Amino acid sequence: ELWPGDLEARLATAFNRHYPDESNARNLLQRRQEILNDITDTVGAVFTGLTFGCARCHDHKFDPILQADYYRLQAFFANTRAADDVLLTTPGALEGYQKRLAVWEEKTRDVRSAMNALLEPRRKDIVDELFVKYPPEIQAAIIKPDAERTPIEWQMFYKAKPYLNPDAEEVAKTLKGDARDRHAALKDELEKFAEWHPGELPVGVAMVDANRTAPKTHVLSVGVYDGRLQEVEPGFLTILNPAPAKIEPPRGQDSTGRRAALANWLADPQNPLPARVMVNRLWHHHFGRGIVATPSDFGAMGERPTHPQLLDWLASEFVRRGWSMKAMHRLMVTSNTYRQSSGYQETAAKVDLQNRLLGHFPRQRLEGEVIRDSGLAVAGLLNTRMGGPSVFPELPPGMETRGGWKVSEDPAERDRRSVYIFVRRNTRYPMLESLDMPDTHESCGRRNLTTTAPQALTLLNSKLTLEWAQAFAARVIRTAGPAASQQVEAAYQLAYSRKPDAAEVQTALGFLDRQRHIIAARQGAVLALPTPVPELMDRPAAAALVDLCHMLMNSNEFVYRN
Fold first, then answer.
1. What torsion do the CA atoms of 426, 431, 432, 435 make, to the nearest 10 degrees?
2. How much is the pTM?
3. 395-408 pLDDT, tens per residue?
4. Can you tell me the distance from the alpha carbon of 73 to that of 265, in angstroms, rounded to the nearest whole number?
5. Are 207 and 80 in contact (CB under 8 A)?
6. Max Cα separation, the chain?
7. What sign results for the dihedral spanned by CA atoms 258, 260, 261, 263?
8. CB 3.0–4.6 Å: which of 141, 342, 455, 554 could bond 153 by disulfide?
């Protein structure tokens, strides 16, 4: 609504589509309400730091949020729908594409008509089977003429549309006998014209408004989707502004303007909430704990700020600097507080045992994603290519998956940064899950930090980390050569970005010597050797170096930010 001509802005709206969605549900009114609830809860917590979700069924018991406020916020999204057909191309490129496509369509008209004649009867059967499963009121909304649909019926139509429009490939798979053989022959004939086809246009997903008229929003009795009470208009917290929001539909767009109004309110310099919430989130990620330790709850049940004046000053600076997060990052990481030593301060601990006042820099364990990326980087295996689709690394042997997990064919793709690992809500990547990966069903303001046996077992015993250690050892040998003392120095430099002190060198050399003799005494044992195996190097010594590298990656210094 704000930047309709900016493709990146349109794609960014798809972030609102991270809600859990029971796509097979036939009660589309209930399904829509569950989606709206998730969006409302998330927007309220993320941008205002308030637990709006507690007001879904009744007035908030602790904070000044009325039940009506919950649905006033929800009304901003009442007319939204998923769009899976956002063309990622310029008007000029589209015009050229359409001309080339027209040529292909003319040359293949007869073949495609024959294929459609085979597919249409089966397509109709498939659609009819799906259609009858919807409740009568949804069926009525689907078959109504466009001009007669109400706003809520348009919502139901768009919810059902993707499932009532199976593509040609999906229908073709259900053909049998002569029809299947005939379709295969026609498909082969169509392939002869492939050189004339301009290819597929790049398409993205987004969230848009269904049209310029939104369905009515009601307060729901105890949150039940069909328990409609009084109607409400889009609006903000009653305690701040009881009047309905001022909304102007954007010119030349089939949209209500509601989300633009909400965005402008959230980014209003006079709004006391979002700026403070956002700078607190940035502080939380730099220091491991926010000035308010409950980043998504600034309400009465949240924790009190440790430095309230600092929080207010940071919020005002954030607005003054044009809401630039980059500027705030720079401000925080160049501060004296951030640049402190993380060493224990006995005097400070006597008055502030938990270091809430930041007498020293708080030591923090790295997130699971960072630990994995660090292991791959030290091993020289990290694939830093950016962009593209998600990847599926190998799973541990014996792990069952729900919904499928097709491992990426290219081994290098499996070693992409963790941000590219596909996130399936009911099959989370096990290494990340053991290291406190957030619950993927809801927004996470702060991660739980646990210390458990599976974490140590994952980093010490998994096939994956052993492979990292083998590649790490090979990298050390390439860097330092055969001399053990130089290998120790190179290993510390690669793993910790520092040189070992004299005591550490002696400890490591002693370990290598003892481990070499232990390994050499194991007649016929399978050795974990550097990958690739270095030529002419003593095999027990090479295996001992792998064990040293494995140990370095399992140390506190490797998995903690110092």
1. 120
2. 0.88
3. 988 887 777 889 99
4. 11
5. yes
6. 87
7. positive
8. 141
